[in-house]
Specification:
Layout: H1 7-16, E1 18-21, H2 29-41, E2 48-49, E3 59-63, H3 70-78, H4 81-89, E4 93-104, E5 112-115, E6 123-124, E7 128-134, E8 143-146, E9 187-189, E10 197-200, E11 206-208, E12 217-225, E13 230-231, E14 260-263
Antiparallel strand pairs: 1-10, 2-3, 3-4, 4-12, 4-14, 5-11, 6-13, 7-10, 7-12, 8-9, 8-11
Helix pairs in contact: 2-3
Length: 264
Amino acid sequence: MHPLISQDHIDAYARDGAVLIKGLFADHVAALRAGIARNMAEPGPYAAENLKEGEGGRFFDDYCNWNHIPEFEDVIRQSPASEVAADLMQSSTVQLFHDHVLVKEPGTSKPTPWHQDGPYYFVEGQQNVSFWSPLDPVTDASLRCVAGSHLWDRPVLPTRWLAEDSFYPDDAAFMPVPDPDAEGMRVLEWALEPGDAVAFHFRCLHGARGNETTVRRRAFSLRLVGDDARYVERPGRTSPPFPGHDMVSGQRLREDWFPVIFRG
């Protein structure tokens, strides 16, 4: 087991679907800040601005840039993230799915909507983990996770953040997006220092408040999968889309696109 975590972390991850990992990227904060600056100056094809006309601030996100932003690839390969992921997932291998950057500038009141990542992805399997790491101190703008939501019987309906419409044609296959605060759900959130990370399951319902502070909130996320991850067909365009992947249902993710970054 990696020294950053204990059996308590592994048990909490299995039970709650989210757990705090202190200092996971603590030695890589400067590199990640530089990578985000490069990403925002040279956005990739999936970059998005997530505010409607008239909404204040700026909410930028982009993903799938590790193979042309060297700072991201270096951190992915050199940080302890893959070893910690193997322990949390109880997996002998760790495969990179994608990176994700989310930046909320000061005065951005728009929240990140409640959602599960899993229904947007073309991968299924219980062995998976996302790491969400702020590169600025966060309190109110921290990630919020609903404890135990990764064990719900039905996935939550995926929607497009800006248009706020359904993501796939069959809404009946999904449960409506809940309001965890109004419904009294147990919400996990932590005050975080740069380089700390929240580890959460692809099926964990999560969101974040707006950034009403005077300090920007830069966050780097890393999505990883384990031994049981398999490609699955979805009824519509997935996010990320990864066009031209040529995989078929039940296949392991192709390693030339999704490299194995840890073998136990």
